[in-house]
Specification:
By secondary structure, the chain is an alpha/beta fold. Helices cover about 50% and strands about 15% of the residues. A 5-stranded parallel sheet has the order 1-2-3-4-5. The radius of gyration is 16 Å and the shape is globular.
Length: about 180
Amino acid sequence: DAALVVVLDEPSLGRVTLGDGVVTVEEGLDLVSGALAAVEASAVTGLHCCSVADWGAVLRTGPELLSLPVEVAATLRASDLGPFLERGGWVAWGAVPTDGPLGPVDGAGTARLWRHLAERWHALADGGVDPVLLRRRAIVTPACGLARHDLAQATLALRLTADLAARVAAGTLSEDHRARG
């Protein structure tokens, strides 16, 4: 049986968590937490935020899955992510850019995306996050929606996503991180 997954797309949540929203931080977090709670009995709950945020506050809303572009993950602290993964949380890493045209699907393109994702993961592992958990609790996705792309570009984005996911599944991060350390 497949699990039902409901992901709330909250692009302004980052501004709210940083105190720059139209509601207070507490009000914003309560609203999101309540929305997640409303569906948690029947679905895996996820939260997508594509802007810089206080990720500790975002995770306190209770999602089982956090979805974010790799580009904004630089503000994700190991002290917030490590416990989330250890409790069984998942991260959907938006590793394939969606903000412009994509190049051809080839080994070089996948390698470039892998390096970018691995750099973020290495920084988190250096901060104490288990590198094996980073890989095992990872889902690879496009960074955001594909509505701005035509069919050919959307297809390229999904092929790159599949190729990168296969590389993640191969389990090279923990080996790469040990070699660096």
